[in-house]
Amino acid sequence: RGALETLYADDAVSVEAYDQGNGRITEGKAGISGKHDWWEANFEALEASGGGPHLHPGHGDVPDRFVLTFTLKAKFLETGKVSDMSEAGIYTVAGGKIVREEFFYTM
Fold first, then answer.
1. How many CA atoms lie within 13 A of 17 on its CB side?
2. What DSSP letter does each residue of 60-106 carry, written as one string?
3. How far apart are the first and last CA of the chain?
4. Which of 15, 23, 24, 85 could be joined to 102 by an S-S link, Cβ 3.0–4.6 Å?
5. Residue 1 predicted with pLDDT over 70
6. Is residue 21 predicted with pLDDT exceeding 90?
7. What long-range pairs does 81-88 form, CB within 8 A, spacing at least 24?
8. How far apart are CA 78 and CA 105, in angstroms?
9. H/E element, 9
10. Neighbour tally for 7: CB within 10 Å
11. Which residues face 64 on adjacent strands?
12. What is the pLDDT of residues 27-81, one digit of tens each?
């Protein structure tokens, strides 16, 4: 949670690949924190690993970006179902802060 406060711009935008019932787009640090609260209330991470960052320095009109990859085994707390998940996040940076995150994953 400290990373959200430190690394994200106040008006950061988060974009999901699919609507999980709350819309695909979440705006602001408070909204993104709410997404984290929802995930933590509904899932338990059993195993997790990550990769990156894979950097894409900006030039001209192209912003600074980087990609992180995530692989995890998680349990949906409501049903107990365990699933393997694989995800990539593209993060856009401006003014030294993350201003946009976009997630790509399989369901």
1. 10
2. TTBPEEEEEEEEEEEEETTT--EEEEEEEEEEEEETTEEEEEEEEE-
3. 25
4. 15
5. no
6. no
7. 82/46
8. 21
9. strand 8-15
10. 13
11. 93
12. 999 999 999 999 999 999 999 999 999 999 999 888 999 999 999 999 999 999 9
